[in-house]
Design brief:
The protein has 175 residues and is mainly α. The chain has two domains: 84 residues, no CATH class; 78 residues, no CATH class. 65% of the residues lie in helices and 5% in strands. It is built from ten helices and two strands. Strands 1-2 form a two-stranded antiparallel sheet. Helix 3 packs parallel to helix 6 and helix 6 crosses helix 7. The longest helix is centred in the N-terminal third of the chain and has 18 residues.
């Protein structure tokens, strides 16, 4: 696999110790991420390092090493697992909110081919509906099912976001 760390990524990590830069280099050598993924991973690592006052070695911990060294996992899956883990560490409340949302959404038993997408980072309050259908009859049936779901208490709780406000206010964060 042909791989390189891009110059602006090297510039972002130049202030790190040799040991920390080497840790990132080893990570990238094993994963071979694209430019955008290198940038994302470095951003997460540097943000976590700055916020928590921990070293890169502590961030690229046993969990990441275990993923990296598991030869049964394809490279792409390793990349996704490590990105998800770093995102979870970087944004723990957001990760928790997404988990709660997915759980509540699953309990609604949406029609097959239907998905509700929450606001990005819960910032703009706008949900999106993705609906797949094959014909007008299926479309109408799914809309009827969605209408019934929209009348339930579970739907109102999900979209009302009281659970979200409670989660964040418990940490002293208010929108």
């Amino acid at each position: 696999m042909s791989f390189k760390i891009f110059p602006d990524i090297l510039k972002e990590i130049e202030s790190l110790s040799d040991k920390e830069r080497e840790k990132i280099h080893v990570l990238f050598t094993k994963l071979g991420p694209s430019y955008s993924l290198q940038k994302e991973i470095v951003e997460y690592i540097l943000d976590i390092r700055g916020r928590d006052g921990v070293s890169v070695e502590e961030i690229i911990n046993q969990k990441i090493e275990k993923i990296l060294n598991n030869y049964n996992i394809p490279r792409e899956k390793k990349l996704n697992q490590i990105r998800a883990y770093l995102r979870q560490v970087r944004f723990p409340l957001l990760f928790t909110a997404e988990e709660i949302f997915r759980s509540k959404l699953k309990s609604l038993n949406l029609p097959v081919g239907c998905d509700i997408i929450p606001p990005s980072y819960w910032e703009d309050g706008e949900y999106k509906l993705k609906l797949n259908f094959k014909n007008a009859i299926e479309f109408s049936e799914k809309l009827q099912q969605l209408f019934k779901i929209s009348q339930t208490k579970a739907w109102q709780e999900l979209i009302g976001e009281q659970w979200f406000e409670t989660l964040f206010s418990s940490k002293g964060i208010h929108r």
